[in-house]
């Protein structure tokens, strides 16, 4: 995942014709990568601290979404596929951490990420059809009352051309 982000960052800079920035950022990120992999440069204390920083970042990244869904009483355009896959991924991470890793910090991060993803998934289920019955069935003009007159009913007005359209084609009479 980190290597993908690295390459995407470099490609964004490169294709925006910021070649020098791409080289500098690429070298800096590579240097950080090498430093993180060298135990003599970066100790376990710093790595644990950086791992601990991911916990509030993960939780705080989901809180605004949870609040927005609660406030709007709808999930809006949020992808159910993504929400349930996030949930499955974090639950799998909890399982693998319990069975294979003996690190309470990693487990705490996985559990907290799972909790916020459970809340998002529960909201997705609870608000699944919320707002769909409120969607307009007719155009805005029909909701406000048809102001076009009886002879124009069934014809659509194109605001770009000033012409009325019918199912058969363009009616050359304009209002």
Describe the protein in words:
With 175 residues, the protein is mainly α. The protein contains six helices and three strands; from the N terminus they run H-H-H-H-H-H-E-E-E. The longest helix has 29 residues. A hairpin with a 2-residue loop joins strand 2 and strand 3. It has a three-stranded antiparallel β-sheet with strand order 1-2-3, with no helix packed on it. The radius of gyration is 27 Å and the shape is flat. The chain is 63% helix and 5% strand. It folds into two domains: 42 residues; 87 residues, Up-down Bundle (Monooxygenase), CATH 1.20.1280.290.
Strands, helices and their partners?
Blueprint: H1 2-15, H2 19-37, H3 44-72, H4 80-100, H5 104-126, H6 140-144, E1 156-157, E2 164-166, E3 169-171
Antiparallel strand pairs: 1-2, 2-3
Helix pairs in contact: 1-2, 3-5, 4-5
> Unreliable stretches, pLDDT < 50, 5 or more residues?
135-143, 156-168
Write down how many β-strands occur, each being a DSSP E stretch of 2 or more residues. 3
Mean pLDDT: 79
Counting helices, strands and paired strands, the structural category is mainly alpha
Describe the structure concisely.
With 175 residues, this protein is mainly alpha-helical.
């Amino acid at each position: 995942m980190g290597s993908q982000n690295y390459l995407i960052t470099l490609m964004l800079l490169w294709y925006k014709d910021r070649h020098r920035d791409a080289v500098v950022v690429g070298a800096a990120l590579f240097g950080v990568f090498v430093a993180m992999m060298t135990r003599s440069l970066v100790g376990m204390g710093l790595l644990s601290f950086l791992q601990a920083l991911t916990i509030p970042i993960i939780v705080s990244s989901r809180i605004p979404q949870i609040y927005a869904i609660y406030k709007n009483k709808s999930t809006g355009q949020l992808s159910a596929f993504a929400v349930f896959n996030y949930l499955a991924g974090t639950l799998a991470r909890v399982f693998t951490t319990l069975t294979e890793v003996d690190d309470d910090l990693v487990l705490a991060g996985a559990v907290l990420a799972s909790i916020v993803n459970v809340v998002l998934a529960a909201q997705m289920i609870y608000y699944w059809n919320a707002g769909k019955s409120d969607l307009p069935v007719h155009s805005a003009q029909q909701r406000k009352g048809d102001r076009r007159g009886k002879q124009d009913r069934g014809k659509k007005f194109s605001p770009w051309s000033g012409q009325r359209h019918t199912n058969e084609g363009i009616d050359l009479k304009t209002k």
